[in-house]
Amino acid sequence: RNQGKYQQALDYYQQALAISQALGNRLAEKTTLNNLGAIHHNLGQYQQALDYYQPALAIAQEIGDSLGEGTTLNNLGEVYRNQGKYQQALDLYQQALVIHQEVGARAEEGTTLNNLGSVYYNQGQYQQALDKFQQALTLSQEIGDRSGEGRTINNLGLVYDNLGKYQQALDYFQQALVIHQEIGDRAAEGRILNNLGLVDYNQGKYQQALDKFQQALAIIQEVGDLALEGVTLNNLGLVYKNLGKYQQALDYYQRTLVILQEIGDRAGEGSALNNLGTIHRNQGKYQQALGSFQQALAISQEIGAHAAEGSALNNLGFIYYDLNQYTNAEKYGFAAIEVLESLRFGLRDTDKVAILETQASSYLGLQRTLVTQNKYNTALEISERGRARAFIELLAQRLSPKTTEQITIKPPTLKQIQQIASQQNATLVEYSLVADQLYIWVIPPTGKIAFRSIELNSLEQSLADLVQTSRESMGIRGRASIGVESKLGVDQTKRLQQLYNLLIQPIAELLPTNPDAQVIFIPHQELFLVPFPALQDESGNYLIDQHTILTAPSIQVLELTRKQRAKVKGEELLIVGNPTMPSISLKFGEPPQPLSNLPGAQQEAIAIAKLFNTEALIGSQATETTVKSQSSNASIIHLATHGLLDYGPIQGKVRLDIPGALALAPSNQDDGLLTAGEILDLELKAKLVVLSACDTGRGEITSDGVIGLSRSLINAGTPSIIVSLWKVPDAPTRDLMQEFYQQWQQGGNKAQALRQAMLKIKQQDSNPKNWAAFTLIGEAE
Questions:
Q1: Radius of gyration of the chain from Cα atoms?
Q2: How many percent of the chain have pLDDT more than 90?
Q3: Quick one: 313 exposed, middle or buried, by C-beta within 10 A (0-12, 13-18, 19+)?
Q4: How far apart are CA 549 and CA 312, in angstroms?
Q5: Nearest-angstrom CA–CA distance, 369 and 389
Q6: Which helix (H) or strand (E) holds 661?
Q7: Pick from 160, 178, 180, 177: which is nearest to 169 by CA?
Q8: What confidence score (pLDDT) does residue 486 get?
Q9: How far is the CA of 367 from the CAs of 340, 377, 448, in angstroms?
Q10: pLDDT tens, position by position, 576-620
Q11: Burial class of residue 9 in the structure, from the number of CB atoms within 10 Å of its CB (0-12 exposed, 13-18 middle, 19+ buried)
Q12: Residue 694's pLDDT is what?
């Protein structure tokens, strides 16, 4: 270890201290004490650091050196933060901030804001951390403090990495690395290489992660930073664990633990114990794993590190499940999700969606524990508690416009779930994919809940592959249909029957016998892509022949869309078809190309407008600005245009917002792309929005449901939307949409009208590709 330089510096400073004390030079004495404290701090000798910083603070206060007092308070705060004493650190930083602002010490103010952000990050208060880091960044850039700028950019990367936003994290870390290499800060360079390795690790790029951790270790050992060395050894252990090299991982974790215990880094020690527990669990050494997780939990609770506490509780839940101690597994599973949910408070919507994705396994693990104990109804409550939470909170916020504060809406109880089924007068079918099981709950309007569990092990391919191949068997390729029709018949029937046997057959006798009675499917993961109307039983009957079908992201969303129904007061009709298309870059860095013309969509819009005795907006009339302004007073919005799944504002390589956009005519006031993020800002009063364009029902499938256009439209105020799960040819789409509106005008609800339209088109064209793509999300009435 290259600590020789530190020893030499310590010797010089001890001599300097003796001289300044002999001369009675209090200012020099304070500065030297601070320098001695900093060296011990860098060596991970936290108690010795405190022994120097505390007298330095006393001197600064005694001689009225405000700047020195602020700096020393910061130093003390850093030691306490490294020891996991977060509240003490927070108090010291707050005092330092006041002083630095009073004396106008801008660089020191930036450092303190950075330190405050770091404590909030350690406590899992991510939005507060982001706010402080952003303030620090602005300040360091204003005054040209390159070191402070690099440090803050690195910290922003850490928060985004923890939120699961890996591309954003990567961009920040790369910027920080450039800055620290420019200014020659080797320790910071080692720290950032570590962070870059973590991004690779989180994305499963283990070899790249290994390379970066090894580079980092070489630099860190060279500069003699013991605390960072411990972190890096821990990270190397993580990679070896995931490569299945458990003994090597164990060696690294044990080395980590020795260092971190030696320097008193409590947070690092807890993390290393958690990792050790995971190795023991993977090796089947459950009792040893239990011990490690219990120690990790004790440390995280002692220092108030909430993300680490959630992780330890979660791991204890898993280990008790492995030990067949289901009561304990349940207890710790519930405790874990309580803590993990607290981390989401105050985050922006897109950040909530990202962090939910990292927490999904906790909800699934708890469902498995409950189902193992035959507690099917409690498992249903947890299934609901883990889905579409960000969506629900956003929706609840829109329904309570008087509240500016963030709403935390409680997940539904069993009784509320039964009430929702009764109010909807529908049979609710909720799916949950847990490891190699498919859980299905059926909740009829009477409220008598039934549960089924299906083994997926016996499938000849994964469920995700089965969904994909059944779509392909209908001639659907990827994001759009191919020009050549695939061979219909045997393969298609087989795939759609396989899906029926998995998803419907086990619950068929629980579904209503009246075909007009509504069945609302709440899919999970890849099941969002299933064309439910096209599923076929052994006799060749399609599901749409027997049932009126809707979908929803969660049961609780239905309660909120029902409340929205009371608010829809639109009067006009907004019907758009084939706008003059905007130009977009299909790939990063390519020149923009105009989107293809949709003559069929134009005919469709004109025909529908005629049904309602109104005019459609087509071509250059259908500008984004016009559509936005007319949408606020429309009762029905029908948009026959391109839906772009992945489009969104980009900064560098990072998408900043929710993916998805609708193509409209550009004008001098807009770009012609109505993004999912812009839709969220609309105030819609429409009772129905129809996106009769390709793939508009698809998007990014997350624990929060499908993130894209449909989610934004419901949040903007409409209780019902019709979207398509693939690109449908012009002629059948036009016919189906006309038939839908005619049926709806004759009475009955939207779901029944959509069913009748599908049945009509099916008579003319049996290929489900041409009639089964559309799905109604939300309210039937």
A1: 30
A2: 61
A3: buried
A4: 42
A5: 21
A6: strand 661-663
A7: 160
A8: 39
A9: 16, 10, 20
A10: 999 999 888 766 567 888 888 888 899 999 999 999 999 999 999
A11: middle
A12: 65
**482-519 exposure pattern, b = at least 16 Cβ within 10 A, e = fewer:** eeeebeeeeebeebbbbbbbbbbbbbeebbbeeeebbb
Can you tell me the distance from the alpha carbon of 305 to that of 123, in angstroms, rounded to the nearest whole number?
A: 5
CA angle 198, 355, 707 (to 5 degrees): 120
- In whole angstroms, give the CA distance from residue 657 to residue 671: 17
Tell me, what's the pLDDT at 485?
Answer: 35
Q: How far apart are CA 50 and CA 44, in angstroms?
A: 11
What is the side-by-side order of every strand in the sheet holding 643-644? 643-644, 661-663, 673-675
Domains and CATH numbers, the chain: 414-556 (3.30.420), 558-778 (3.40.50.1460)
pLDDT digits (tens, 9 = 90+) for 341-357: 888 777 766 666 667 77
DSSP state of 591: P
Q: Give the integer Cα–Cα distance in Å for 615 and 626.
A: 14
Confidence of residue 557 (pLDDT cuts 50, 70, 90): confident
Strand partners, 98: none
Rounded to whole angstroms, the Cα distance separating 276 from 292 reads 7
CB of 428 closer than 8 Å to CB of 420: yes
Q: What is the pTM of this model?
A: 0.82
| Whole-angstrom distance, CA of residue 66 vs CA of residue 55 | 15
The torsion angles phi and psi of 457, rounded to 5 degrees, stand at -60, -35
Average pLDDT, rounded, for the chain = 88
442-459 confidence digits (pLDDT tens):
999 999 999 999 999 888
Tokens of 773: 């793509």
Q: Give the bridge partners for 577, in sequence order.
A: 618, 640
228, 252, 273, 356 from 234: Cα distances, Å: 10, 6, 10, 25
**Residue type for position 27:** L
**Residue 54 structure tokens:** 């505390």
**Inter-residue contact 156 to 373 (CB < 8 Å):** no
Cβ atoms 477, 727 nearer than 8 A:
no
CA torsion angle for 119, 125, 128, 132 (degrees, to 10)?
Answer: 30
